[in-house]
Amino acid sequence: MADVFVSYKRKDRELAAVVVAQLDFAGYNVWWDQHLTPREAWDDLIERELNAAKAVLVLWTPRSVTSEWVKNEADYAKSLNKLVPTKLEACKVPLAFRRLQTADLTSWSGAPGHAEWQKTLKWIGDLVGEPSKQPTQKPQEHQAQKDEIVALHGYLARLRDELAEATRERDHAMASHSVSVAGRVHAELLRLARLGDGRSIRPAPAVSVLAVRVHSTREVVSRTINLLERRGIIRRDSDALFIISPQRLEEMIA
Q1: How far apart are CA 95 and CA 88, in angstroms?
Q2: CATH second-level architecture of 4-155?
Q3: Are the CB atoms for 225 and 234 separated by under 8 Å?
Q4: pLDDT, position 46
């Protein structure tokens, strides 16, 4: 029987892994859906584990707040008085849970001493009591596990930075709904170039990838790229795309 059931959105698996690892370090036996196997009736198993767990830790993010499964699990845990809500990223918590005190982990990178994480552990401890196993020994005695946690912390920090940067660039490029497909391609090329020296993209972006990012087709994006090349605004070679005139490309975002 698990001490803690972790409820999260599948797209947040990497974030959830950091939480699970720290709960394990604290000595708690954790159940999350990576324990599911194809042969199990997953809805029955989840209900059984929800009932068996002493605490249910819900991880709210912009993705999980739209998940009916996560909201149902949170509601069920609330009815059993064992819900521990946390906010991993800035988001609007579903209406039914806004009056509940929620641990704010939006600035947490996985460090065990973080004040809000310590608050979370305190709430879990109030429900669970003593952990079902001994807390993991000092990190230096388990170097491989320590290295894995450090790597996850780094991944989490990079993921948040990349998401913030992508959001800023998207908001700038899409400020007007009238931006054409060609304009979105121009904005995306400038964005990618600014991640480096401002004039080159290495490796050269695949047309299919650009099409996905600007919500268009390969054919339209390919025509846009070819036109830019004919006008001398960009140049491509085998391993890079060069922006010859960033100013002209900026002016063409419309």
Answers
A1: 17
A2: 3-Layer(aba) Sandwich (3.40)
A3: yes
A4: 82
- pLDDT, averaged in runs of 10, over the chain (254 residues): 91 89 91 62 76 95 93 92 95 92 92 92 93 59 54 67 66 55 91 90 88 86 93 91 92 82
* CA–CA distance, 175 with 172 (Å, rounded to integer): 5
pTM assigned to the model: 0.54
**Is residue 5 classed as helix, strand or coil in its secondary structure?**
strand
> Is the CB of residue 57 less than 8 Å from the CB of residue 6?
yes
pLDDT at 170: 59
In sequence order, which residues have a C-beta less than 8 Å from that of residue 138 and are 6 or more positions away?
none
For residue 194 the two structure tokens come to 């600014």
Indicate the helix (H) or strand (E) that contains 235: strand 234-236
Residue 109 — φ and ψ, nearest 5°? -105, 10
CB atoms within 10 A of CB 79: 9
Return the pLDDT at 142: 47
Question: Residue 84 forms beta bridges with which residues?
Answer: 57
Please tell me the predicted confidence (pLDDT) of residue 39: 46
Distance CA 215, CA 179 (A): 12
Domain edges within the chain: 4-155, 176-251
Tokens representing residue 219 in the block: 């054919």
Domain 176-251 is found in CATH 1.10.10.10: yes
Does residue 131 have a cis bond before it (omega within 30 degrees)?
no
